[in-house]
Amino acid sequence: MMGHIQKGGIMHYRGKHIRIGIVDNDALVLGALQYVMRTCLPQSEVIWRETDGNRAVSLCSTPATTPDALIVDASLEGMTGSEVCRCIRANDAEIVLVGVTSFILARFHDAMLDGGAQCLLPKDNPQTICQAAIALCEGRIPRDARFSTESAAEAHRRLSKEQQVNPVRTVMLSPREEEVMTWIDLGKTSLWIAKRLNTSESTIKTYAQRIYTKLGVHTKVEAIIAWRNRRSE
Asked: What's phi and psi for 97, nearest 5 deg?
């Protein structure tokens, strides 16, 4: 296996320098993944770690902070892992997108791959995550059901075209945002929704602002119109 050596039961990669970004809402997982990357991939460099999906998308669109590979948690809060992948892949065909989750793979598999992730792997096997990043950076797609059969270039063409045809449709709301928007569409106030969801009114207003941003609107009325148009498609 050229470029790989076995040391202490751990596979080490001696290939080209790989710049890696990691986005996960668990700070402990971020630290653990960075440690494993440094151990298994000594030639790699974790150039940044993020807990916020929007921030990760921004970093991936800036040349100075664009990674070769991005490790994406499928169950991010706010902006989901599949949304992060979709936003990045619609604008970039080069970044390797490796989805990870601590939940059952089937829960996020289809959404992540549809969003442009090249695979979805369990977090409890970090060496597999490293090996996947290596393979995909080298242009290899393992014959494994957890990997997409669609290349990054093919996913980019599909998603960029989808974005041009219907930019609102390509933006996905998180399950909580979907729930909040459903109540907004029914005419419920932020205070009513907060009581219903057992949270604060300020939290609901934050969700509403995220929804408006994703839908590309500025007011509640515009959001409702965009929401109804989106659901009727």
From this structure: -115, 110
